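step 3/5: co-fold with adenosine-5'-diphosphate
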Amino acid sequence: MRIVLLGPPGAGKGTQASKIAANLGAKHLATGDILRAEAAAGTTLGKSAKSYMDRGDLVPDKVIIGMIRSRLSDGGGMVLDGFPRTVAQAQALDQELTKAKAPLDLALYLDVDREELVSRLSNRAVCARCSKPFKLDDATERPKDVCDNCGGELQVREDDRPQAVRHRLRVYEEQTLPVLGYYKSSGRVAEVDGVGSTEEVGERLEAAIKQQSPV
Ligand code: ADP
Ligand code: ZN
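step 4/5: write tokens
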């Protein structure tokens, strides 16, 4: 299956996308993670992307589309997380997938209200190595500040600082919300309530996927 996971920053896309991908035996592609890895490695792409990311702005479509194109699976299953974030990106993705005769099966929309998002984003630290999120309160209570998943270092993302959080939510509403309309107009969206425990939300997503492709 080829799935796009849509939703605002802080909705839990990363956590859920990696679980769905593992369950389906599909590839998990997270543009935010790819960009952060490029920035950490100091590549030309990473350096030019970093200033956009730190401010909470979108990296230009041309850069993102080029970056994702080379990573799309060859007709196999995949879960896209953090992409597409603009209608132009969604159109480019459809074009590529049509060319590969491997169209998108489903756009899953994780719905979380704004107040909850602000609270989640301003209270989180993430593992620098595997991106696992932690509540800041928990994170600071940890004796060594390391990730319980991989031992990586926990950091507060530059774009999780209050000013950048507000900006990211505005950018999301202006540039990314129209992507939901784009997929709705072609009847490819399933909406899922993103408030609840990781397990609860995961079960809702699983049910939505099953409904789309009953076995
Ligand atoms: P979140 O969903 O929590 O905002 P991500 O890790 O998905 O975080 O993305 C972090 C940043 O990376 C974004 O704010 C943006 O600057 C950049 N980015 C990631 N994916 C895209 C994309 N598809 N188009 C443009 N910029 C992107
Ligand atoms: Zn980790």
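step 5/5: annotate
The chain has nine helices and eight strands.
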